[in-house]
Amino acid sequence: MAESGFAxxxxxxxxxxxxRRLEAYSENAPGxxxxxxxxxxxxxxxxxxxxxxxxFHRDPSGTDAESxxxxxxxxxxxxxIDRAVKAxxxxxxxxxxxxGSDPKVKKKLKEAGCESTIEE
Length: 120
Prior knowledge:
Layout: E1 33-35, H1 45-49, E2 54-57, E3 68-71, H2 78-90, E4 96-98, H3 103-111
Antiparallel strand pairs: 1-4, 2-3
C-alpha cells in the first residue's frame, strides 16, 4: 500500500480534460465535491468507503435504471476529507469530481493519483 493509504494510485481513470465543466447530479449536497450526472454505474464502492458522505438513490422500479450515488454531505473535518478523497479514488467510472480551491484537498487528490478529478 502506498504512503497515501491507497493501494494503487494509477486506478483513477482519465476520461477527459480536467478543465471541462461537468453537470453535477441534482441530489449532491452543495459544495466542491460532486458526482457527475448520469455516470454512476451502481458499483456502490464509494459508498462503502465513505457511508457518512455518500448517499445512494435507489430506482423505485427495481431496475436500477435511475439509481445514482451522490454526495449527501460535504466533508468538513480532516477525517471526512480523507474519506471523500477515498470515495473519489474508489469510484469506478470517473464520475466523482472536486471543484474546490483548497490546496490541501487538491494535494491529497494528486497523492491518491486522482489529479484528473480536479475541476479547474
